[in-house]
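Hello again, I could really use a second opinion on something today. I've been staring at a protein lately and its backbone has me curious. Can you walk me through what the tokens say about the fold? Take your time with it, there's no hurry, and the full record follows here:
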Amino acid sequence: MLNVEIEEAGYEKNSKTIRDLSFKVKSGELLGLLGSNGAGKSTTIKTILGLVKEWKGSVTLEGNARYAYIPEQPVFYDSLTLWEHLELAAAAVSFQDGEWEGRAKDLIRYFKLDHVEHDLPSSYSKGMRQKVILITAFMLKPDLYIIDEPFLGLDPRATKDFLKLIEKERARGAGVLMSTHVLDTAERICDRFVLISSGEMAGEGTLGELRERSGVEKGSLLDCVDSLLEQSI
């Protein structure tokens, strides 16, 4: 689904923020992108999205696969309502007549925003704004989701609703690359993990493989991450 080979990447010439990163996201797989603050997770995602100019390597999507990006900080047009934002997103994708409207309505009700669908997102709470981004992405039904810290601002119920939709999309065959600091949730839902430390890979694989590499035979994902980060120093 997604093949990432980043030799090096940075925001300025001769400045390498990340280097020697190589991983894949398969159809129906949820790959967790882990690392401390400043490790290079966001730079990795921005490189994949084509937002970093100074980089070497290759990022390829299988066939004509489409992706949707769910950012950590939602950004909206000040003058557009929730529904108008969805209209704008749908205009960029070839839908059959009426296809996106029904899907959008269902998602708005699912996330309980039907009472504000014609209001400006600038009037929403942080959690509500995050739901708008989720609605937009799920409405598009892409082949790949690239998600940066999705749990920030979501209450427990909204988090549960989000995870249910992710499972449905994976069952459909969509791949997911998700950056997160919420390791207990990541341990439960991710198939594999990529751990970044100081811009380089410090570990990659399933939880079992991370346990073997870290030497923490029966440890949690947090235990494995701590051990691997210590080894990478």
